[in-house]
Amino acid sequence: MSLNEIKLRKKIKALIAFFIVGLVISGITAFPLEWELSMLVDLSKNLFAINNPLLVWVQKVHTGLQATYSNYPFIAYGTDWLAFAHLVIAVAFIGPLRDPVKNVWIIQFGIIACLMVFPLALVAGQLRGIPFFWRMIDCAFGAIGIIPLVICNSYIKQLAKL
Percent helix, strand and coil across the chain, each rounded to 5? Predict the structure, then answer.
């Protein structure tokens, strides 16, 4: 194995590990939503003016989530599955960690998934009454996630040539 190949493999592993950690954190944080929103409301009250659109939105979501969980706690099961899906997808990226060239398709799948965040956030968000600024925050997950994957895909192509 050449020095160049070793360096490429290290870079690829670092990028995939970063992406996996992001998916795991995103997944784990989808479980305790009510508690997290409560903390976010408290934090936002200290950071923003009372009529700040972000604070108003976070309070609205928190109120809605509290009412829903109080009356229909089974709805939280949907976000439990969302969390689970993030964790399962993270496991899929172990394949490219082990053999990036053979499993490059998983990286490409991740790139496609990141691109698909945009139409979902923009269209479904509009239909569900999500404020534009929050849809942009959602789009940021796709925008940030795609960066290491595109770089990783490029490195894997270089590795395949070696």
Answer: 85, 0, 15
